[in-house]
Amino acid sequence: MGRGMLRGRRAPVPAWAAVALGLVPAAVLLAAWWLLTRGEPEYRAISPVILPTPADVFGFVPRLLHTPGDAESAFWRQVLLSFRRVALGFGVAVAVALPLGTLVASFRGWRLTFGPTVAASGYVPIAALVPLSMSWWGTGEMQKVLFLALAFLVYLLPLVIRALDAVPDVYVSTAHTLGASRAQVILRVLLPVAAPDIWHALRLAFGVGWSYLVLVEMTVLAGGLGAMIFTGQRRSELRPQIYVVLAVITLIAWAVDLGWARLGRVLFPYREERA
Amino acid sequence: MSAQRAAAGDAPPVVEFRNVTLRFGDYVALLDVSFVVPDRPDAGEFVSIIGPSGCGKSTLLNLIAGFLQPTEGEVLVRGRPVEGPGVDRGMIFQQYSSFPHLRVLDNVCFGLRLNAAARGLSDPEIVERAREMLGHVGLAGHESKFPHQLSGGQKQRVAIARSLVLEPQILLMDEPFSALDEPTRLEMQELTVALWHRVHPTIFCITHSVEEAVYLAERVFVMSHAPGQIAYDIGDVLPPSLGVKPLDAQERPEFKAAVRAVTDVFRAVDRAPRGGR
């Protein structure tokens, strides 16, 4: 029976079935939500203060999209603000992680110097750095971007090093016998061969970044999507906002992830396909 | 001047080991190994290296390649001590080494492009040479494939073309066909002999098959292990194999006799009491 199931993993599935199956968990979740929040507020299984009805949440979307008054607080501006922070923090982290990771993976002196720090830094409780980052860098944009950069860096650096370490020695040796200098080995062999794995690491990191974004934005004046969750938590009439923002962040992160994957297939046509 | 020296017959040997010992800590990988592979004006020599596993066959190749330095003694290539890897010594490994991010043609162009300035080659000239070499190894028509689209034998053909296109004086092959299935192996043996006669570098080829060693080589080093030494250096019994398919060659009495002779030596070496550890 087990073997039959394994064989089934490779069997072709019609596209409509794949889509339908993929929607099942979302449909079950929605149905459960609807059931749990049915009827008069007093008799519900879960209080509306904790879990609003689907109608409340979906009804909240137009309200968010047509914010009256100042355009500063408009929803799409908050989305852009958050996206900008994630992207900037990511950019800074990549600008450090790629060269540093390459040096650590390529040269013994760099590995001996930075290896232990990189290994240990994976265990720093990043969340605890949020208050610290405020005392270091204030409460402006720089603090948010630099905190995110730090979080991205700690996540990314070991993955970059591991991707480069995974390049088989035979490529490096071969390049040397073909007359490559050390720099040529790094630039023309090590990095290109590791590139699909590095790309995968970037993709994973970018996705994880959204969790850190919410963390650093969870103050009243921070602005962005995290702050919207924060205010939604403090004011019960804005409770549905939390769920909308949750869904928006998830959808944005997912869409971006699909973009990474698709771009990866274009950039690295030589990568053997894996599911 | 070097032409005069060659004419006078005193050109330095292509490869010379002078009392080479290599230790890794307490472990003696090679002990006092000496041999000479002379410089022949027309064609390089084909040396097969066989021996029990762990006897230092790869170590010997890595010393010639320049990946390792001897602890004692001297490794000379054309009279000069080896200081590191270089384009004059190509190397083919057992593991597939075609760069996965480059198409077949670009894999073969790789070395020439790195050395384009030194050799005064334009890119069209490089591509032309690479295409010609791909034709010699039987890969015409596969130029724009990526390595993952090739079979194991085809990947080794890419590796061979990529090395030979640089016209190395020495080609080092470390069990190049061990990962291939039997029919492909025989095909590759025949191809190797044909290419050797076409490009005539000096070839050192490690193998664990006596038949392969006898078919390919003019000279066989049988190594003993722990410490690694060249126990026997066999040359005179080996029949030439150009233009003869491996399976046909194996039917011949002189081939069988050579295989028998080398196998006996191999067995004697394998059964000998081990020194060191």
Q: Can you describe this structure?
A:
- The complex is a heterodimer of chains A (275) and B (277).
- In chain A, 75% of the residues lie in helices and 0% in strands.
- Chain A is an all-alpha fold.
- The model of chain A has no long low-confidence stretch (mean pLDDT 87).
- Chain B is an alpha/beta fold.
- Chain B is built from ten helices and ten strands.
- In chain B, a hairpin with a 2-residue loop joins strand 1 (15-24) and strand 2 (27-37).
- In chain B, helix 5 (123-136) crosses helix 6 (152-164) and helix 8 (210-216) packs across helix 10.
- Chain B starts with a helix and ends in a 6-residue tail after the last helix.
Q: What spatial form of chain B do the alpha-carbon principal axes imply?
A: globular
Radius of gyration of CA atoms of chain A, rounded to a whole number: 23 Å
Q: What structural category arises from helix and sheet content of chain A?
A: mainly alpha
The number of strands of chain B is 10
> How would you characterize the largest beta sheet of chain A?
none
Q: In order across it, which strands form the biggest sheet of chain B?
A: 6-7-8-3-9-10
Q: Tell me the β content of chain B.
A: 15-25%
Low-confidence stretches of chain A: none
What fraction of the residues of chain A are assigned to beta strands by DSSP?
A: under 5%
Structural class of chain B: alpha/beta
Count of individual beta strands of chain A: 0
Largest sheet of chain B: 6 strands, mixed
Q: With helices defined by DSSP (H or I, 4 residues minimum), what is the helix count of chain A?
A: 11
Order of helix and strand elements from N to C terminus of chain B: HEEEHEEEHHHHEHEHEEHH
Write the layout of secondary structure elements.
The complex is a heterodimer of chains A (275) and B (277).
Chain A: H1 2-8, H2 15-36, H3 54-65, H4 75-106, H5 108-121, H6 129-137, H7 141-165, H8 169-177, H9 182-217, H10 224-234, H11 239-267
Helix pairs in contact in A: 3-11, 4-5, 4-7, 4-9, 4-10, 6-7, 7-9, 8-9, 9-10, 9-11, 10-11
Chain B: H1 2-8, E1 15-24, E2 27-37, E3 46-50, H2 57-65, E4 72-77, E5 80-81, E6 89-92, H3 104-114, H4 116-119, H5 123-136, H6 152-164, E7 170-174, H7 182-199, E8 202-206, H8 210-216, E9 219-224, E10 229-234, H9 246-251, H10 253-271
Parallel strand pairs in B: 3-8, 3-9, 6-7, 7-8
Antiparallel strand pairs in B: 1-2, 1-4, 4-5, 9-10
